[in-house]
Amino acid sequence: MNSYETKDIRNIAITAHCGAGKTSLGEAFLFNGKVSDRLCRVDEGNSVLDYEPEEIKRKTTISSSFHHIKWNKKEINIIDTPGDTNFISDTFSSLTIVDGAILLVDAVAGVEIQTGMIWEAISEKKIPALLFVNKMDRERADFLNAIKNIEENLDVKPVVLQIPIGKEDDFKGVIDLISQKALLFSIDGSGSVTPAGIPDDLKDQASEYREKLVEAVAESEDELIEKYLEAGELSDDEINKGLRSGILNNTFTPVFCGSALLNIGIQPVLDLIADYFPSPQDRPSLASINPETGEEEKLKIDPAAPFSGFVFKTIADPYTGKLTIFKICSGKLDSDSTIFNVTRNAKEKIGQLLKIEGKIQKPINQGVTGDILALAKLKETTTNDTLAEEKNASSFKAIEYPTPALFYAIEPKSKGDEDKITASLTRLQEEDPTIQINRDPQTREFIISGMGQIHLEVVLEKLKRKFGVEVELKTPKVPYKETIKGKTRVQGKYKRQSGGRGQYGDTWLEIEPVPHGQGFEFVNKIVGGVIPKNFIPSVEKGIVDAMNEGILAGYPVVDVKVSLVDGSYHAVDSSDMAFKIAGSMGFKKGFVEAKPILLEPIMKMEITVPDECQGDIIGDLNSRRGKVLGMDPKNKNQVIQTLVPMAEILDYDHTLKSVTSGRGTFTMVLDTYEEVPAFLSEKIIAASKTEKEEQ
Ligand SMILES: Nc1nc2c(ncn2[C@@H]2O[C@H](COP(=O)(O)OP(=O)(O)O)[C@@H](O)[C@H]2O)c(=O)[nH]1
Ligand SMILES: [Mg+2]
Hints:
By secondary structure, the protein is of the alpha+beta class. The chain folds into five domains: about 5-280, 3-Layer(aba) Sandwich (Rossmann fold), CATH 3.40.50.300; about 285-395, Translation factors (Elongation Factor Tu (Ef-tu), domain 3); about 405-475, Alpha-Beta Plaits; about 480-595, Ribosomal Protein S5, domain 2 (2-Layer Sandwich), CATH 3.30.230.10; about 600-680, Alpha-Beta Plaits, CATH 3.30.70.240. Helices cover about 30% and strands about 30% of the residues. It has 16 helices and 37 strands. The strands form eight sheets. An eight-stranded antiparallel beta sheet has the order 18-17-23-14-15-22-19-20. A hairpin with a 3-residue loop joins strand 14 and strand 15 (about 320-330). Helix 6 packs across helix 8, helix 10 crosses helix 11 and helix 12 packs across helix 13 (about 575-595). The chain is elongated. It starts with 8 loop residues before the first strand and ends with a helix. The structure holds guanosine-5'-diphosphate and magnesium ion. Guanosine-5'-diphosphate binds near residues 16, 21, 24 and 61.
C-alpha cells in the first residue's frame, strides 16, 4: 500500500533561467525533507539532481530530474528542470504534467530571458505558481529591485509573502507577513530557524506589504472583498482561504525570498506548497482526444476510474534499457500487470513500478492517481503515448516542442558505423524529441538538427558514453539546384563507326523552363516513326541521368521541359544505349545554351532578440542577403521574420548567441528556392570544378 493518497500529492516543477539556482533549491528541499543527509551542491559536483556526467561536467541541468519528499504529511514530487534554451524542451514536457511551479528570480540579475519565456508557458497553462527571489546572500542582491523588475518584465501580479531581513553577507532570514513573525535562520546551511519579533527598522515595511497582501487576498473572492471593505482586516482563516483560492485560480502569485545555497527561507516555501498548493485532483486534467469524435476534451481526474496515464519523458539507458516516465491521470496501477498503449494500439506488459529518486529508482507496488512514476523496459511505449486499462480510452494530447534551429552533417569517425549512428540516435531521440535526424536526399548527408551548439555537443557526448559511437559534425553541404531561364532547340547525335556493328542515335530536343517546383516534364512529339517507339524511353532515360548528375556544378537540374521533336535512326546500328547517350548529349548541350542558373534554398526564420539588439541583428541579416519581412514586439523582445539564403546562415547560432549574449533564439524552415546571384554562382561553379579535379 502507498503511504499517501491523491489528495496528498503535490507535483512541483522548479523553473527559471539557467543559473538562477533551481538545482540548488531542489537540493535544499531534499535536505530539509531529510532525503539527503547533507546539503549537496552543484559546484561540488555532488548534486543528487544533476547526476549525469554531462551535467556534472557543465555544472548545469540538461535533463529534468525527479525526486520526492514528505513535508507536512504531503508527498511533494519535485522536478528540477533545465533553464538553458538548448535543453528547454524538457522543461516544457514537465510543465505539461505538473500541478504547480516555482519560478526563480535571481536577486542580482533579475528576470532573465528564459525566465520570461518559461513564465509565459506557466501562465498559458494556468499552472498555480510561486516566485522565489533567490541568492539574497549575494553581493548587490536587492529584493525590492527584484520585485520591481518582476512587475516590469513578467505579466504577473506578485504578492509578497515574505520580506528579507538583511541582505548580501548580512542576509539572516525573512519576515513572514501572514504570521507577522521574523524567522531567523542559521547561516551554516542547517536550516535551523529561530522565530522572533519583527525588527524595529522593518516594522513599517512589513505593515506596508502586509496590507498589500491582505488586499490582494481579499480580491480573490467576492465574499472576502466585502468583509475587507467593511472591517479593513481579514481573520487568519479568511486570509488562508483567500490565499488558497488566489493561488489555485492564478489571480496572483506569491513571492518568497531566500538563499538556496545557505538554506535560508526554504521551509516556508515547502509549507506553502504542502498547505496551499493544489493536489492533482484540484486541477483540470490534461487535454485529451476523444477516440470517437476526435475532439479535444478534459476528463475528470478520478482516482476511482479505470487507470490512464500519460508518458511525458523517456530516458535512454544502454544498460537498463529505457525508462518510461509518466503521470497517472486516473485510477490506480499495479506492478506486474497488463495495460494498453492506446496511442500504438498495443498491449503492454509492465513489470515493477518505480518511483524516481535522482539517478536511482525505488520499487513500489501500486501507483495512485496524480503520482509521477516510471517503468523500465517497456516494449512499445515512447514519449507522448497514452497508457490505459481500457483499450478504447481517450488519448492525451501530445506535447508540442520547439523547432530545432541548428543543423550539421554528421559522419562517423570510423567507416562502417553509419548504421550504428542511426540506431543510437533513434534511441536518443526517444529521450529528447528536439533532436531531429534526416537524410538529405540530394547530398546524401545525414543531417542532425538541435536547439543549439551545446545541445548537439551533449548529443555527441551521450552517443559516445551510452552507445560507444564517435561522430564528427560538419557544416552541411548546401543543396543547390540547377535550372534554365531560356529556351533552345538542339541536336543530340551519337554515331560510332568501327569494324563491325556501329552505334547510331540521333535526336532533336526542345528545352524550356517550367515554373518553379514543377520538376521535369518530357514530351514525345515524334511523328512518322523517325525514331522507333521502343527507343524513346531510352532518350528520356539519358536526359534524366544527365539532370541528376548536374551540368553546371554537379547539382541536380529541376524545372525543365524537354520535348523530343525530331531525329533519325539506323536500321542496324541504333540501340537503346545509342539513344540514351544521344539524349544525354543533347540535353547537356542544350542546357548550357539555355541561360543556365543555380538555385539556392531560402530559409524562413523567426528570430527573437532583446529590444536593444534589434539594430545589430538587422544589420547582420542585411549582410547575409536577408530580407526582413516584419517585426513584432513581444514583451521586452522583438520577433523578426526574415528570409535568408541557407548558405548564409549555416553558422547563425554562433552569431546570434554572441550578438545577444546568449539571449536570442531562432527557428527556421525551408521556404523556397531562388536564383543565386551571378557573383556567387561563379564561385560555386569554380569550387565544384576544383572538387571534381581533386577527385
Ligand atoms: N550565493 C548564492 N549562490 C547560489 C544560490 N543558489 C545557487 N547559487 C549558485 O548559482 C549557481 C547556479 O546554481 P544552480 O542551482 O546550478 O542553478 P540552476 O541552473 O538554476 O539549476 C551555482 O554556482 C550555485 O552555487 C544562492 O542562493 N546564493
Ligand atoms: Mg539546474
